[in-house]
């Protein structure tokens, strides 16, 4: 009997059941997929670091160093298990050309040629095997595989003056240290003989002083010990935790967005489920009364209703999990490419299954909450209401004869929405979610692509950026470059900066404050979370993560050793920065050449000057400086993230439109069934089917307008806060969306309005076929 009841109910409510089934399936699919992304990402990062034997602490260094002092430190420090110093040969982009192409002179990437390491920090091929090129062969970073669409067997040519060397690509490198595009250094692997030859003809040397630490050692504590030992520390220091974070960020942002989308879909599914259950209970009021009258308990009636939804939710969740397996490969393709395929483990299966089970549990718990209403229905009231539940006509004074016919449908539609807005509140809330889901990914994508996103990287917005790293004779080249820019008539104005490291004294202990930018911060200003830019030599501004690490706020003091003398500085401001691990500072301090990490120039060109041509001109004139315009810098640094965000934007747009279609169709189907009596009266009065359809279209569009306004405001406020949470671990917790008004305020609403109007028209096409004999007047 139970089976017959369920089959009859399914046949009676095919569209409703199918709609609910689709919502639950999509929710299960997205939750399972998001959990899989996070699980595979975590597993892939751990597996890559394990197979590559990644170092726990890396100190980058340029210039002379005492390897003997480093060896003695490693031997005497119980924290250290292994140490090696990696020699890296930096070769300018202007000296490299892939497969006969032109050199990428405007690339922000630094190219380091290395030999394969023997102890740890191995560079791996796409099978996660240690790559060992022979003479004339080279292994190229995966970043260039994507950027230049390279293949095994292509060539890379190194040209410096009269020197020319061609390599054949035999592998693409996975590098635990320098994999993601957010890290602007990339390592190429060549043979020992080729490295020696290259070093004799081109490039500049840089060193990676690497340590592997004993299990359980706190990396932060080791860094303090290293710094107090007086060992090389002028350049950037990197920890394994920071490397793992940088490797996970690109796909982590995508996972966060997919989780957000899945939560919204679950919310819509639950609202849709509530609407369906209440509608079914209203339609079945008489049947419920009969069952109660013959002695069937409320619990048994509830279980009868629940059985249908148990079967439907279980099947939808199961199919959602199954469909997430192939769809998940789309989102995890970037993880697989950069970190390798994750070996199947119990967790990679159990966690997505648990996500699916959680969706099923939420659906069933919600059903139980809604069906508690059975307790409040008595048999007498149900039998009395059941006979005329749909036969009551709410009578009001409608002076139809005074109204022009062309405005009558609009007036009736608006009057019904205003009179029964509680019923339309659900539809409005769903439209708010659809708008939010549609707009937030678009705003996030346009924000990351916008030129002023450079502010979140601790940089001022300019036309061109020139970056000069430490090499032999860099001070003289820097001076000559500034002189050339001063006399260039194409330059409107420019500002030079240096980035240096200073000893930091905290509670009697000395460490190093790196990445301190020095210059005039009145030009190319950035936004500050709190406070303002340094105004005097006694001020310093800190990045958000630096301020958190040092536990200081605006107005607090820091003590630096400036030219070997203690100087107390006041924190004047705190800003956001996504570069250098999010840990930088800005000050107006004196500096010494030996303390400089790199030199930087921002410049704006006069109106009408071609930026691309000027960038190429400067790249040739100021080689080996990196010369880029800001759009290119952002595209190269966040290229992988942007491509993933585009995929999420497409998915979110399709889901928003699908949700709007399904919920509108479901709502109108139940609404027209509920209003059958009113519709029969309107038909009797002479309203044509097109008139009734217009009324419903106006109702839904009126509700949609309210939803669009509230959803857009929510996307601009709550959406920004969610974006801040995504970027907080990178060093930017307060993101301001860059909005494209034409897209957000016109195209998106028009798309939703179009699909809602078409759905309404299709759902109400039979409203004029109601038979007059169905009219019941009490």
Automatic annotation (TrEMBL):
Positions of the ABC3 transporter permease C-terminal domain: 260-371, 651-768
Organism domain of life: Bacteria
Transmembrane segments: 253-273, 307-327, 347-371, 421-445, 647-668, 696-718, 738-762
Membrane-related topology note: Multi-pass membrane protein
Location(s), subcellular: Cell membrane
Xref: InterPro entries: ABC3_permease_C (IPR003838), Membrane_comp_ABC_pdt (IPR038766)
Keywords assigned: Cell membrane, Membrane, Transmembrane, Transmembrane helix
Descriptive protein name: ABC transporter permease
Organism in which the protein naturally occurs: Aequitasia blattaphilus
């Amino acid at each position: 009997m139970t089976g017959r009841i369920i089959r009859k109910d399914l046949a009676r409510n095919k569209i409703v059941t199918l709609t609910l089934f689709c919502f639950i399936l999509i929710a299960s699919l997205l939750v399972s997929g998001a959990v899989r992304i996070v699980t595979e990402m975590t597993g892939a990062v751990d597996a890559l670091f394990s197979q590559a034997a990644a170092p726990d602490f890396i100190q980058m260094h340029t210039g002379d160093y005492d390897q003997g002092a480093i060896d003695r430190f490693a031997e005497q420090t119980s924290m250290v298990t292994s140490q090696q110093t990696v020699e890296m040969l930096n070769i300018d982009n202007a000296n490299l050309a892939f497969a006969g192409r032109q050199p990428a002179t405007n690339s922000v990437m630094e190219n380091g040629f290395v030999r394969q390491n023997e102890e740890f920090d191995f560079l791996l091929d796409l099978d996660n095997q240690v790559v060992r090129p022979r003479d004339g062969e080279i292994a190229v970073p995966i970043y260039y595989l994507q950027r230049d669409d390279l293949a095994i067997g292509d060539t890379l040519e190194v040209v410096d003056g009269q020197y020319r060397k061609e390599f054949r690509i035999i592998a693409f490198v996975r590098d635990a240290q320098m994999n993601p595009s957010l890290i602007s250094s990339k390592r190429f692997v060549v043979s020992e003989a080729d490295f020696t030859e290259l070093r004799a003809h081109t490039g500049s040397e840089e060193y990676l002083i690497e340590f592997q630490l004993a299990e359980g050692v706190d990396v932060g504590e080791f860094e303090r010990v290293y710094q107090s030992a007086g060992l090389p520390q002028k350049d950037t220091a990197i920890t394994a935790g920071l490397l793992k974070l940088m490797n996970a960020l690109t796909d982590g942002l995508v996972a966060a967005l997919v989780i957000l989308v899945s939560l919204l879909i679950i919310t819509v599914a639950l609202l849709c489920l509530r609407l369906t259950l209440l509608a079914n209970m209203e339609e079945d009021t008489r049947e419920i009364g009969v069952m109660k009258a013959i002695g069937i308990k409320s619990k048994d009636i509830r279980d009868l209703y629940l059985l249908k939804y148990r079967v439907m939710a279980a099947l939808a969740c199961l199919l959602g999990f199954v469909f997430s397996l192939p769809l998940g490969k789309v989102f995890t393709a970037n993880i697989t490419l950069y970190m390798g395929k994750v070996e199947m483990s119990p967790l990679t299966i159990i966690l997505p299954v648990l996500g699916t089970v959680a969706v099923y549990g939420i659906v069933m718990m919600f059903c139980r909450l809604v069906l508690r209403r059975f307790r409040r229905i008595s048999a007498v009231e149900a039998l009395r209401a059941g006979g005329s539940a749909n036969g009551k006509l709410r009578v009001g004074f409608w002076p139809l004869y005074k109204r022009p016919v062309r405005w009558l449908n609009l007036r009736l539609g608006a009057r019904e929405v205003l009179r029964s807005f509680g019923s339309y509140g659900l539809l409005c809330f769903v439209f708010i979610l659809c708008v939010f889901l549609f707009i937030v990914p678009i705003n996030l994508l346009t924000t990351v692509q916008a030129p002023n996103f450079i502010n979140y990287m601790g940089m001022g917005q300019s036309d061109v950026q020139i970056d000069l790293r430490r090499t032999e004779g860099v001070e003289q080249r820097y001076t000559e470059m500034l002189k050339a820019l001063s006399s260039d008539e194409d330059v409107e104005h420019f500002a030079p900066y240096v980035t240096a490291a200073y000893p930091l004294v905290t509670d009697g202990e000395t460490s190093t404050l790196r990445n301190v930018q020095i210059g005039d911060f009145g030009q190319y200003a950035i936004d500050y979370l709190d406070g303002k830019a340094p105004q005097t030599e006694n001020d310093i501004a800190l990045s958000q993560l630096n301020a958190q690490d040092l536990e200081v706020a605006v107005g607090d003091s820091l003590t630096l050793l400036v030219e070997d003398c203690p100087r107390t500085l006041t924190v004047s401001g705190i800003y956001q920065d996504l570069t250098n691990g999010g840990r930088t500072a800005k000050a107006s301090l004196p500096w010494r050449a030996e303390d400089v990490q790199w030199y930087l120039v921002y410049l704006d060109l006069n109106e009408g000057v071609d930026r691309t041509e000027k960038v190429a001109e400067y790249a040739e004139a100021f080689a080996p400086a990196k010369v880029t315009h800001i759009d290119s810098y952002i595209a190269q640094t966040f290229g992988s993230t942007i491509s993933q965000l585009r995929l999420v934007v497409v998915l979110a747009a399709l889901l928003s439109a699908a949700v709007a279609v399904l919920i509108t169709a479901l709502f109108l189907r139940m609404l027209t069934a509920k209003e059958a009596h009113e519709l029969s009266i309107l038909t009797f009065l002479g309203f044509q089917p097109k008139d009734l359809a217009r009324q419903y279209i106006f109702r839904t569009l009126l509700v949609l307008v309210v939803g669009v306004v509230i959803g857009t405001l929510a996307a601009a406020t709550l959406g920004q806060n969610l974006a801040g949470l995504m970027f907080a671990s990178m060093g930017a917790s307060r993101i301001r969306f860059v909005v494209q008004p034409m897209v957000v305020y016109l195209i998106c609403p028009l798309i939703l309005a179009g699909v809602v109007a078409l759905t309404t028209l299709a759902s109400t096409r039979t409203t004029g076929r109601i038979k007059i004999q169905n009219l019941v007047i009490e």
